Amino acid sequence: MSGGAWLPVPAPVTLVLAAAALGAGERSLRRHSYTAALTWTGNDGQGTADYRAYRRDHDIRFGAKPKLLGSADPAFRGDPERHSPEELLLAALSGCHMLWYLHLCADAGVVAVAYHDEAVGTMVEEEDGGGQFQEVVLRPLVLVTDRAVVELADRLHEEAHRLCFIARSVNFEVRCEATTEVAP
């Protein structure tokens, strides 16, 4: 079967609150569950009969949201027009940092009016074909409305990094080289 959807797509996000009674000094934990449905669409009739006989194409769905078109990195016979898992990891780190940063700006009275990140990730491939990310460098450029808050705006990146769910979940270095400017 090529490209057909045959598995049900679960709801995109389920929030589960910890219901157990907590003892003195314990924190309340909230658990968030996420789902993704991935369907391989690269079977050209021979399946995986040969390493070169199939495309790495796949569709990724998160509930009813528009599907993402995925593939391998072109270095691994992937389609350069589709998103690779490595790019999606980089985007997740960049997006999580931005969302925490904007939250902290709002809480601190820093008015950010623009945010653009040019993140770069470095992955190393081992002799056995496996590999891992060595580091990701986030390079956000933030525009704020008041010159007096530029230093505070810069410091908020450290807190955003400390709180970022994705950065806390990876086993490689994530650095932030931010620039803050005053909007014209």
What does this structure look like?
The chain is α+β, with helices and mostly antiparallel strands. Helices cover 21% and strands 29% of the residues. The strands form four sheets. It has a three-stranded antiparallel β-sheet, with no helix packed on it. The chain has a three-stranded mixed β-sheet with strand order 6-9-11, with helices on one face. It is elongated, with a radius of gyration of 21 Å. Mean pLDDT is 88; it is low at 1-22.
For the record, the CATH architecture of the largest domain stands as: 2-Layer Sandwich
What distance separates the N and C termini? 56 Å
CATH top level assignment of the largest domain: Alpha Beta
Largest sheet: 3 strands, antiparallel
- Into how many domains do the coordinates divide? 2
Placed side by side, the strands forming the largest sheet appear as 3-4-5
Percent of residues in beta strands? 25-35%
| Shape, principal axes of CA atoms | elongated
Q: Fraction of residues in helices? A: 10-25%
| Total DSSP E strands | 11
Q: Indicate the mean pLDDT.
A: 88
Rg computed from alpha carbons, rounded to a whole number of angstroms: 21 Å
The H/E string reads EEEEEHEEEEHEE
Classify the fold: give the CATH topology of the largest domain: GMP Synthetase, Chain A, domain 3
